[in-house]
Design brief:
Length: 402
């Protein structure tokens, strides 16, 4: 039975099949990610209902025990969501009602499916942001290890895809390590944004005061630092927060995109500054000699995938009036995909960095064989040692390389 069905109402008991499938779409599959978080939130909610007297202690204990079982099953992938259940929230309540009878029906007291899904999503987001921090630090560590080993090696630097001035492996790779370090600050800001509990805001207008719910209790139990007080803001934040998370993912993916482009270029035979292990590459079905950096090309391309997911979220959530609108259901898929792609891209990039070889001799030879790389140094030598005005020195050296 659906949470919104009104027994005895013919209009709500019979749902057009085409409408049913269109409105549900892939929610039963997507919500498998939210199941454990919804179970955790429901446990906290049940304990709060006991505290305020809406549940007897024995009822609360039975609900928490069954919800713990659902939580454990969900982690093992053993709690399916049927299409008839619509989503994980309905699946959980239907299961509780089947197992516990009338007690199961009491779990939804003092909450709406709106704040229920918001809370589960918020818990999921917090967990994923923590994973993102871990993966970012792993990549930082891999870059630092490579810098420590080869940092002093010189190689050509480029502007406009032309040789410009000498740089070092340390300068080259540290730019990405530094960018990741700065992005951890951005991640902390996004995490702070998400670290507020929407549970108890119900459908977006709060819960009647007669119920005397304890929102601080559930927020603390679920590890939130604060309560999201304005119930309408809770609904507005669904989309705003997801947009912030997807924007962070896209910004992080841009770093990986640029790093992947460097690695692809510098591993070309014409450069050979670095080498990729053969086991990291794929081959050609027709050209026997080929070793292709497909993994890096996909990292590079996945920046655009994540950016597109951000655009989806921001587009879907624009033009909506205050309060909940069903449009918001469609933000789940792009959010999940943006997070999943970013996490996997961070992990695979760190793996690649750990496996590449810096061809020191090739790097040094490329610098030594290009006198033009030191043109700027020559100009400044004239400025410092001979007192030549820089613009004159610039032109003197430019004439040399005509």
């Amino acid at each position: 039975m659906k949470l919104w069905q009104k027994k005895g109402s013919k209009a709500s008991e019979v749902v057009d099949t085409l409408i049913h499938h269109y409105t549900i779409q892939n929610d039963p599959l997507l919500d498998l990610r939210l199941l454990p978080y919804d179970a955790l939130a429901s446990m906290a909610h049940a304990k709060m209902l006991v505290k305020i007297g809406l549940l007897k202690p024995g009822e609360g204990k039975a609900l928490v025990s069954e919800l713990q079982s659902i939580y454990e099953l969900s982690l093992e992938g053993k709690f399916p969501i049927a299409a008839s259940d619509e989503d994980c929230h309905t699946a959980i309540e239907n299961h509780l009602t089947k197992k516990l009878g009338e007690v199961g029906k009491k779990i939804h007291s003092a909450r709406s499916r709106n704040d229920q899904v918001l809370t589960a999503i918020r818990l999921f987001e917090k967990a994923m942001l923590e994973k993102m921090e871990q993966e970012s630090r792993h990549l930082q560590k891999a870059l630092t290890a490579l810098i420590k080993k080869h940092g002093k090696t010189t190689l050509p630097g480029y502007t406009h895809m032309r040789q410009a001035m000498p740089m070092s492996v340390s300068m080259w790779l540290s730019q990405y390590a530094d960018a990741l370090k700065d992005h951890l600050k951005l991640l902390a800001a996004v995490r702070t944004l998400c670290d507020q509990s929407p549970l108890g805001t119900a459908a977006g207008f709060g819960v009647p005061a007669i119920l005397k719910i304890d929102r601080k209790m559930t927020a603390k139990a679920l590890g939130f630092k604060r309560v999201q007080k304005n119930p309408l803001y809770a609904q507005l934040s669904r989309g705003l927060f997801e947009g912030s998370i997807s924007h962070f993912c896209a910004s992080l993916m841009l770093i990986l995109n640029r790093l992947a482009s460097d690695l692809i270029l510098f591993s070309m035979k014409e450069f050979s500054f670095i080498s990729l292990p053969a086991k990291f590459c794929t081959g050609s079905s027709i050209m026997p000699q080929k070793l292709n950096p497909d993994v890096l090309e996909l990292v590079r391309a996945n920046y655009h995938v994540v950016l597109a997911e951000e655009f989806k979220i921001m587009g879907i959530t624009s033009n909506l009036i205050s309060g909940y609108n069903r449009d918001l259901q469609l933000t789940k898929a792009p959010l999940f995909n943006a997070i999943e792609v970013t996490l996997s891209s961070l992990a695979v990039t760190a793996h690649v960095i750990k496996g590449i070889t810096i061809n020191t001799q090739k790097c040094i030879e490329a610098v030594r064989s290009s006198e033009e790389l030191y043109a700027t140094h020559e100009a400044y030598r004239l400025v410092v040692e001979e007192g030549v005005p820089f613009r004159d020195a610039y032109r003197m050296i430019a004439n040399k390389y005509k």
